[in-house]
Each structure stands twice: as structure tokens, then as C-alpha cells.
Design goal:
alpha+beta; 5-stranded mixed β-sheet; 5 strands
Length: about 90
Amino acid sequence: MFASIHAGGNLPILLDCARQFSPLIEITSEDTVTFDIRGLGRTYGSPDQIANEIERLIGIPANIGIAANPDAAIHATRHGASAGKGAATH
């Protein structure tokens, strides 16, 4: 499972947030990070609950995508609702 966060002009904030969840982080673009969230279900629950926790910690308007692979998470983030959560399946 992977998460992606997109927020224009806020890369340092995105990286700080992603580091709270995973050491495996990729800077996908200047305003998007993607990271591995496998195993976080035991701590946070469902993908929606993980997204809610990311949203709580980031503290700025951002798009959050959760998906089974990094590409789908990025797609959900970039093509989801503005400043909201997107979920993609496989």
C-alpha cells in the first residue's frame, strides 16, 4: 500500500509529514511525495483512516491518495478532488 501527497509549493512540509509514516519516501515532483505505508493498517486502521491521519498531520490543504501501488497513489492524488482525499484500487 502506498500514499501520495500533493500540495503546491510545500515540499518541505510534505517530506516532514511523510517521514512520520515511512522511511521509504520518493519525491515524485516538486510538489508531490509518495511513500510506502505497508503495515500501517495495524496502527491506524483502514486506508481511509490512514488518509485522515495524514490529513491531520500535514496541517495544510493537500490532495492525498492511497492505493495498492505508487503509480495509482500518484494518479489518485493528482486527479482527485482539490484539497481532498482520493482512493484508487489496483
